[in-house]
Amino acid sequence: MDTLARLREIVRGSGSARRPSAVPARELTYEPVGADGLPPERASATGPLEGARRLTTPYGEALVVERTLEAGAPHGLARVEEGDLVDREALAVLTGRPVPEAGVKPSPVYFDLETTGLSGGAGTVAFLVGCGWYEAGAFHTRQFFLPGFAAERALLHAVGEFLDGVPLLVTYNGRTFDLPIMETRWSLHRMPAAADGVPHVDMLPPARRLWREALDGEARSCRLVALEASLLGFVRTGDVPGWEIPQRYFDYVRRGDGSALEPVLHHNRLDLLSLAVLAARAQRLVREGASASRDARECCALGQLLGRAGRTAEAEAAYRAATGHPAGDPATRQQAWRALALLLRRERRHHEAAAAWRHVLASGQGGPASEAVEALAIHHEHRERDLDLAHALAVRALRSESDPRRRAAVRHRLARLERKLGAGGGRRPAGGVLLDRAVPPAGIDEDRER
Questions:
Q1: pTM of the full predicted structure?
Q2: What topology does CATH give the domain 293-447?
Q3: Confidence class for position 402, pLDDT limits 50, 70, 90
Q4: Dihedral of CA 245/246/248/253: which sign?
């Protein structure tokens, strides 16, 4: 059991940790000072942040900033309301595990943190906890802000109350960053971890599976700001880079000037909205299938997700759509044919699989073509019983194979085929290639259906 797990057990097993103490604990406070060493003049605790309101908790006051984005407002090529979608079956396909029904609130909560560091750990504090949800197509955000480190317990309590009854949390890299940070902060303050038991969907792994590879073969960045630009057509102008955010907060704590934090709150709201719209786009891909894909690469990636979920017929349809998608390239089509051939072989539809392997050969060379030659050699030897063509394919595989271990396997196959042909009286020249059927050229003529 690791340290975080032990802390969780301590918190869960302590009944007193779940109730605020009757006597408020004295907290270490930090009073900001200016360049002259004197405290700066501030009108009030809510003054630095526009529209912030005080939220009273048993542990003191927290600051909350709320905003609403109307349903019809644009977000790049999309509209705000397009993110208002929760399909648990589609989410199960995307994540690879069931998404149970839970909570009493109607909408899932999109969750994102801004922190004092990007590497995590016990010294990293979440100074801004952003939550977003939909009501009648409009997107509402509530951001819990930490005006000073002494107010962290009040912020954590307020966030915990807000998450009570939430049916689903949706994050982007929340499984390894956002939620562990919150759990650590709750544990360090000996408070119950409010996110425990709430179903959680981290959209980063599905996004990587769907959109990491671009048509040009290059790896696409799966940072949220990169995907919103490439998929939603939304380009941020004047945005705060992530590495700069912690320093802006430290400057606020030291000097009490909240003007530099307004762009940080805006950045967080955009992250929440983009997360919601991209999550909805991924769900629509699963619901509507290949017809909702914008290019062959997305079609092929969708087929892989559907195949992993056991939805074979839909996966096959996605692969076939990828092979003929108007927005495609030869490498992606070859990849789609290969994926289709493997799927058909698993389904024991061997003749259809052989036809797909022929298309792999016709689509180009490289590793997939070598794999296709080997698969067709096996097919013609063991299923079609066409030993001549199987031998010719094995010879071609030997000529193109550079890996020593695979070359040894091909030689073993060639030797077996020659024994079979010799037993059957087949005529071969000294070089081992059949006289009555030469080694087929690259292409699909060699592999025509027998």
A1: 0.81
A2: 1.25.40
A3: confident
A4: positive
